[in-house]
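Q: Protein A?
A:
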Amino acid sequence: MKSITIKGSERESVGKVSTKALRNAGMVPCVLYGGNQTVHFSAEEIAFKNLVYTPNAHTVVIDLGDKKFNAVLQDIQFHPVNDRMLHVDFFQLFDDKEITMEVPVRIVGTSPGVLNGGVLRLNQRKLKVKALPKNLPDYVDANISELEMGNKLYVTKLVSDNYKLLHPDNTVVAQVRISRAAMKAAQEAAKAAKGAAPAKGKKK
């Protein structure tokens, strides 16, 4: 999985006054959990642009100058009115410990059902995976090459040796539905075929 570096500064004071001052200066208060000690730090709001405002999943390198931590985004709080970031939580990564995170689904292949007029519906845009940090995928590929009209692609078809998918076996990832146009065409064809059928002769 691709990684983004966020440069910040460790916080000495974590009170409300210092937190407000940080936000007024365009900084975001952050907390890193999961290690031996909780780490409080701050970073410029613009540093989160490529991490937060993207459909992709990333790991994070938190660079505090003399200290560096590998982590994943855990939670983020936004202002209810202006949508500015108020607080960000991270969870520290360790090479020998599995981590759970959501990863986007990427559609691959071409569905025969779509070629015949069906409509592809992506039911799950992200899937929750559990893996060691080195095995976290950028995407979970969903191959729709075998989906005919009306077929569904279940999460059981997306198994991998590198990670576990934390969803019930009956979770539908994608499906091909019959479009209104295709349904109308089928109905009209059926009517035409019925009208063209030769009338049965009466018995004498």
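Q: Protein B?
A:
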Amino acid sequence: MKSFKTVDDFISGQEKWKDELVYLRELFLNTELEETVKWGFPVYTINNKNVIGLGSFKSYFGVWFFQGALLQDKKKVLINAQEGKTVAMRQWRFDSREEVDEPSLMSYIAEAIANQKAGREIKPEKKKPLLIPDHLQQAFDKDLSLKQSFEVLNLTKKREYAEYIETAKQESTKVKRLEKIIPMISEGIGLNDKYRKS
């Protein structure tokens, strides 16, 4: 996905929804929010805190509320686009300009601004500490170079390996999984690297 430096670049770089994005942008600029670009997308802030964002995709355009889970959502229009991953953020999607209910949208934005000013926010849960399963620890105790190879992996890869062993229900499965991952760890390969985009 292309990264844009300015909101004008973002809008002109869209194949679809240009007029709709200009329309929403004008609404946002009539609030006290400040316009910026983060992660290549237009973001509107107050006191340097993200309040809303502007987005455009093939089948819809919309508004991201960074703390949308705190909104009353009287119209029941907000969705969590990444269920299980996103705790606070919510989207309001539109597939035409006619679908934009301006008074309701401005009411949602006003509520989002008020929440941010009041310091109301949902903070992401802190990750639990990395726990090494017994089988993996025993392998490290027997092979120091394996432990050293594991130590240089990033935290995500370490967690994936630990969970892979820990989630096996049977003892025999834990042993088989351990046998599978030892060479991968030694080579510095993550368990799910083949699924990751390079």
